[in-house]
Structures are given as structure tokens and as C-alpha cells.
Amino acid sequence: MGLRFPPKVLEHILSFIDSNEDRNSVSLVCKSWFETERKTRKRVFVGNCYAVSPAAVTRRFPEMRSLTLKGKPHFADYNLVPDGWGGYAWPWIEAMAAKSSSLEEIRMKRMVVTDECLEKIAASFKDFKVLVLTSCEGFSTDGIAAIAATCRNLRVLELRECIVEDLGGDWLSYFPESSTSLVSLDFSCLDSEVKISDLERLVSRSPNLKSLKLNPAVTLDGLVSLLRCAPQLTELGTGSFAAQLKPEAFSKLSEAFSNCKQLQSLSGLWDVLPEYLPALYSVCPGLTSLNLSYATVRMPDLVELLRRCSKLQKLWVMDLIEDKGLEAVASYCKELRELRVFPSEPDLDATNIPLTEQGLVFVSKGCRKLESVLYFCVQFTNAALFTIARKRPNLKCFRLCVIEPFAPDYKTNEPLDKGFKAIAEGCRDLRRLSVSGLLSDKAFKYIGKHAKKVRMLSIAFAGDSDLMLHHLLSGCQSLKKLEIRDCPFGDTALLEHAAKLETMRSLWMSSCFVSFGACKLLSQKMPRLNVEVIDEHPPESRPESSPVERIYIYRTVAGPRMDTPEFVWTIHKNPENGVSHLAIK
Amino acid sequence: MEVINGLNLKDTELRLGLPGAQEEQQQEVSCVRSNKRKNNDSKEESAPSPAKTQIVGWPPVRSNRKNNNKNVSYVKVSMDGAPYLRKIDLKMYKNYPELLKALENMFKFTVGEYSEREGYKGSGFVPTYEDKDGDWMLVGDVPWDMFSSSCQKLRIMKGSEVPPAL
């Protein structure tokens, strides 16, 4: 045989490989490479907490220092997953506390995290440094206090859009006077007021603090004094910007901002009054990221701000910016890479918003580096999609939400099939795609054929028949996550392409016409897929051909999960056992 | 392929509503097959259909983005017996009399006399609202500012439907 690397040499080589995709490939080469890789992997990513057991992960990666976990399916963000579905952090924290006590970083998304979990983290990991919770729930400010009080080397504490039981602002005072290691603090999702003097002292004794995101309860006065304590910030999330305008207040604010010479990212700005925006002008030329999506400010004021932001790479804004404002962005913000435009009135009956497809066309034409788009708009046209695809073949993420379900091209009354075909064909590097508007099965034929690198696809109110699912599951080579709601396909395509599902992380289908019988069959055919039927009514109380409300299918090596609530029906792999809740409380 | 195997999908429809909720109240459905437009139904598409139902989780924005528009404060107004809902901007009114007058004009009714003890008497119509906690309250009990910042929805109940507690 050929040469073999001594393990030490292989270890050294692997120390240069950070990407987990590469490490996964390395681990498939042979047993000894698998062994060396697993012993040297420090950052572990688990995209579905039910795909593998905590024990298996802690056993495989003894040197784990950082764990990232994701729980609920993405559509949970839009209330499509009932409360109590699952995604519990506890089994993971428990396993890590026992086996991986040198863990330093935990990042979790859409998981249920309790105060017990947070207390266990604080108590178990001596050198704990980073806690990032995104869209999590189940804990209170008491749990945060435990982290603050105990983790002596805490660098990062970020609560992003979590639902937290807010028992008051005391948690902040639990950071001991000796705590000086903070680099990033984000408590923007909490409601209660914290004591500004405590926060000022914490900020003043944290020389490495680079990112601070306040909650809306922090007033403008508070912001001013905090900025004075931390002029070195690179990322700032303001508190509420809606105090009464006093002349001295304005000039203090302006001055405080102008002293923040390193500010690159600005967010918060809840209820910002337009009169206060000029206070931000001094930082605009240096900004690379600006989140105005909570700022209810009209177009002229937005333009006045944005025309000063020549280095802007990321812009999140509401549709109050209008087409005209986006035309200005296209002309002033030539470095723009990411644009998100949110609806100011997220309602089906919203009308009179002067934001149309034209706004996105302006930006696509003017911003040559644009690669990521999220755009909410009442209606759209194929022509606009052609232009966007032609001008921006470098798009990596294209999420278009036409708010009116089944809305055709409003100029020609045709489906948007050809427009999305242009996007799929033209944007060769597209990784993430969300489609909307009136779409026939043909649209999915094009997407299946051309969207070769798309990993995540979101579909709502589209298609005509099983053909649509057939096209997607027989094409879309790189598909990992597929989420579909309110589409009229049934069982055929799903059962025909069962094998494809094992190549994907997960498939979500709700309000489609997939029957309980098909779910049973799929579950029996595919031992490494968990097929979860989420339905208030027992599936057995209806004919097997009845459609079920929601289905979540995911590949797993952990077998059926044991923590399902009453409304989640998993089908035993052994058909004699029928359907049950495998719930152990 | 429009036909759904002849099944009555209403059997499996998940409803989000109070127990015993009336038919007139908004029902949130997650299936909107009835709204599907065909290519040949061209010209009328721009007119909003009167009995629009809410769709769960649509448009796909996170709940912390909804109702955060403070300068404009549109709330839905339903009136028992009316075929569709209306919307008013609460920020347009400075006090209760202005609001009640606007509602009376919009729905062509008169609200009775308000008293703290007995609520609205005399007309059979009672204005109620849903507050931030999800509770249905009588319009007029709390100071205007408190009302306008916590009111999520308005419902004008017909006298006969009003539970004794209100």
C-alpha cells in the first residue's frame, strides 16, 4: 500500500481545516482519518437536534469547544408549528455537562431553553465564553442572571428575538464587578428596564466591548451616556428613539455619535422620530450595516440618511422606503450586498403602499454586488424577474414574497413561471430561494432542472398537482431543506421519491393533500426518516386517504424521538404497533 | 387539478377561535383553496374580495414585526352582521367622542349613552375592543391614551349578543 501519515501529521494538517463540510468529507476517507478528524474537531454543527442523539455527538467529538444546534423547523417563525412541539435543549446540555466540560460556546436556534438549562450551563462549563440564543423560548431573566453571575470569562451574551419571561431588569446587576471580558451583549428582545447606572459601569469596565444591542426600554439619555462610556463600539443597537425633542438632547446625541469613530453596524431605532435622524449623519459614511426595519420613517427622511451611507453593505428597511427610496439606494449605496424590505402593514388587506417590483429592479440594476434579497411586495411581474436575473446573476439568496396569494403577473395576468425560470437559470450560485405569486407546475419543472445549487426552498400557495413535487424531488440536486404550505399535491410524488428525502435535512408540508396512509407507508419504507404528523385530531379517527394537516419529515440516525406531545403522531416502524405518541414525560 | 377527492376538508380544518365562537367572527384558516384565481378570470382581480379570511402565518413575518408601526395605528373594526371588516387609524382621533362618531358614520348606527356603571344604554350596539392581553373590554372605561395604545381590534356588538358581564 502507499504511505500512511502518522496521526500527528494528519492532525496538524487537519488543524487548518475549519469547514465542517470539508471535515465531513475527510472523515469518510478511511477509519484512521475518521478517528483523527473526530478527535480534532472543535466546532460542531447539528442542523437538526433530532437527527442525532446528544450522546452520539459528545462521544464522537471529545474535544468539542463549540456547539451549534437548531431545533424547530423554520416555519415555526410564522406560527405554523404548535407550541410544545419539541426542540428541547436540556438533553444536550445535560450530555455536554457530563462529557464535554471544556465546552466554551453554545449557539442555539429555535430551541426550548429553560432556566434549568441556563443554570446548568453556568455551573458546568468553567471556561464558558459564548452564548447565542436565536428565536429561543422557555427561559426567564433569572436564567440570564445565572449566566451573568457565574461565567467569569463570558465574552458573548446575545439574545436574538427570543421570547423571554421578563421578571425585571435585575439580571444585569448580576454581572460581578470583576467581570471585564464582555465583547458582545445583546438584550434587545427583553422588555424590562435595566438600571442604566449598572449598565454604564459594566460597559466602562469592559474594554473589549465591541457590540452592544439595547432594548427599547433604554431611553435616549441612557444611550448618550452609554456611548460616552463605549466610543469604541463597532456594532450598536439603540433603544427607543422616541423621547421628546429638546435642543440640548439633540446636540448631546449628535456629539455622542460623532465620537463613535468605529461604528459599522447600527440597528434598533424603534419608533425613531425623523427629527432625530440627523444625529446619525456623522456615522453614516462608515456604516456597513443598517437595520431600519423597525423605524417607521417615511421615504424622504430615509433617503436623506441613506444617501450618506456610501459604504453600506447590508440594509434592512420597511416598504415605507418606496420605489423612489430604493432608486436612491441604487445610486448611493454601491457596495450593497444584502437588501431586506419588510412590509409595514403585514396584512392581506394592505393596499396603497408605493412599493412595487420597480424598487427591487432599481437596486438590482444599480448595486452590482447585490447577492441576497428578501422582498415583500403586493404583486410582481415576469418582466421584473427577467431584469433582476439578467442584471444580478451573482444572487445567492432570493426570497420574494408576493403578499397576495396566487397573484399573477399584474401586467400580463400570466403566472410568474417564466420569471422564476429566469432566476433559476440565470443565478447559477443561488443557494436559497423562496417563490410566491401565481405559479403552475411548470415553474417547478424549471426550478428542479436549473436550480442546481439551491439548498433551501420555500413554497406557498403554488402549483397545480403532484407534478410540482415530482419536479422538485427529481431535480434540485443540492436540496437540503424544503418547506411547502398550501399546495395541491398528494401522495404520489412523495412516495415515488422517498429515497431523495434521505439526502435532505428535512421536508415540511402543511395544508397540502398528503394522506395519513402515505405517511404510514413512507415511515415503514424508510427506517432512517422520522415522519411526524402534526394534527390536533388522531389520524386514525379518519380514513387513511384523508389529508393530514402538517407533516414534518427529517432524516435521523437517532430513531423516533421520545418527547413528542399529544398532537404529534409518529408512526411505528413496525406496522403492527400502529400509531402512537412515543411520549415519555 | 382542483378536486380534492370529494373530501370535506372542513373536518380537518384547524380553527383558532374561542370555544363557542360565532360564525361572524374571523376564522383563521390555513387553507385558502377557495381564493385561487384562474388565468381566465382577468379583470376583476384587483378588487379585494369582501369576505377576506385571515391566513395563519401569512405573510411570513415574525410576530415581533407585526403591529410595530406606531405612527400609523390601523386597527380592524368588525360589526356583528356586517359582511366585511373595516380598518381605522386610531391616531386620527383624539378622544372617545371622535372615535365613536367615526364608527357611527362608518357602519350607520348609533351607539347608546355611556355610563361607568351601566356601559352603553339605549341603542343595542356596544363598542368593544381587544386589548394587548387578548381580553375583550368595553370601549370607554380607561383614559383615551391608554385605550389607543392597547387597542388591537374593535368589535361592535349587537345588544342581544352582549354577555351580561359587559
UniProtKB/TrEMBL annotation, chain A:
<dbReference type="InterPro" id="IPR006553">
    <property type="entry name" value="Leu-rich_rpt_Cys-con_subtyp"/>
</dbReference>
<dbReference type="GO" id="GO:0019005">
    <property type="term" value="C:SCF ubiquitin ligase complex"/>
</dbReference>
<dbReference type="InterPro" id="IPR041101">
    <property type="entry name" value="Transp_inhibit"/>
</dbReference>
<keyword id="KW-0539">Nucleus</keyword>
<dbReference type="InterPro" id="IPR001810">
    <property type="entry name" value="F-box_dom"/>
</dbReference>
<dbReference type="Pfam" id="PF18791">
    <property type="entry name" value="Transp_inhibit"/>
</dbReference>
<dbReference type="InterPro" id="IPR001611">
    <property type="entry name" value="Leu-rich_rpt"/>
</dbReference>
<dbReference type="GO" id="GO:0010152">
    <property type="term" value="P:pollen maturation"/>
</dbReference>
<dbReference type="Pfam" id="PF13516">
    <property type="entry name" value="LRR_6"/>
</dbReference>
<dbReference type="GO" id="GO:0031146">
    <property type="term" value="P:SCF-dependent proteasomal ubiquitin-dependent protein catabolic process"/>
</dbReference>
<protein>
    <submittedName>
        <fullName>Leucine-rich repeat cysteine-containing subtype</fullName>
    </submittedName>
</protein>
<feature type="domain" description="F-box">
    <location>
        <begin position="5"/>
        <end position="46"/>
    </location>
</feature>
<dbReference type="Pfam" id="PF18511">
    <property type="entry name" value="F-box_5"/>
</dbReference>
<dbReference type="GO" id="GO:0010011">
    <property type="term" value="F:auxin binding"/>
</dbReference>
<keyword id="KW-0927">Auxin signaling pathway</keyword>
<comment type="pathway">
    <text>Protein modification; protein ubiquitination.</text>
</comment>
<dbReference type="GO" id="GO:0005634">
    <property type="term" value="C:nucleus"/>
</dbReference>
<dbReference type="InterPro" id="IPR041567">
    <property type="entry name" value="COI1_F-box"/>
</dbReference>
<dbReference type="GO" id="GO:0009734">
    <property type="term" value="P:auxin-activated signaling pathway"/>
</dbReference>
<keyword id="KW-0217">Developmental protein</keyword>
<keyword id="KW-0833">Ubl conjugation pathway</keyword>
Automatic annotation (TrEMBL), chain B:
<keyword id="KW-0804">Transcription</keyword>
<keyword id="KW-0927">Auxin signaling pathway</keyword>
<comment type="similarity">
    <text>Belongs to the Aux/IAA family.</text>
</comment>
<feature type="compositionally biased region" description="Polar residues">
    <location>
        <begin position="23"/>
        <end position="33"/>
    </location>
</feature>
<dbReference type="InterPro" id="IPR003311">
    <property type="entry name" value="AUX_IAA"/>
</dbReference>
<comment type="subunit">
    <text>Homodimers and heterodimers.</text>
</comment>
<protein>
    <recommendedName>
        <fullName>Auxin-responsive protein</fullName>
    </recommendedName>
</protein>
<dbReference type="GO" id="GO:0006355">
    <property type="term" value="P:regulation of DNA-templated transcription"/>
</dbReference>
<dbReference type="GO" id="GO:0005634">
    <property type="term" value="C:nucleus"/>
</dbReference>
<dbReference type="Pfam" id="PF02309">
    <property type="entry name" value="AUX_IAA"/>
</dbReference>
<dbReference type="InterPro" id="IPR053793">
    <property type="entry name" value="PB1-like"/>
</dbReference>
<keyword id="KW-0539">Nucleus</keyword>
<dbReference type="GO" id="GO:0009734">
    <property type="term" value="P:auxin-activated signaling pathway"/>
</dbReference>
<comment type="function">
    <text>Aux/IAA proteins are short-lived transcriptional factors that function as repressors of early auxin response genes at low auxin concentrations.</text>
</comment>
<keyword id="KW-0805">Transcription regulation</keyword>
<keyword id="KW-0678">Repressor</keyword>
<feature type="domain" description="PB1">
    <location>
        <begin position="72"/>
        <end position="159"/>
    </location>
</feature>
<feature type="region of interest" description="Disordered">
    <location>
        <begin position="18"/>
        <end position="70"/>
    </location>
</feature>
<dbReference type="InterPro" id="IPR033389">
    <property type="entry name" value="AUX/IAA_dom"/>
</dbReference>
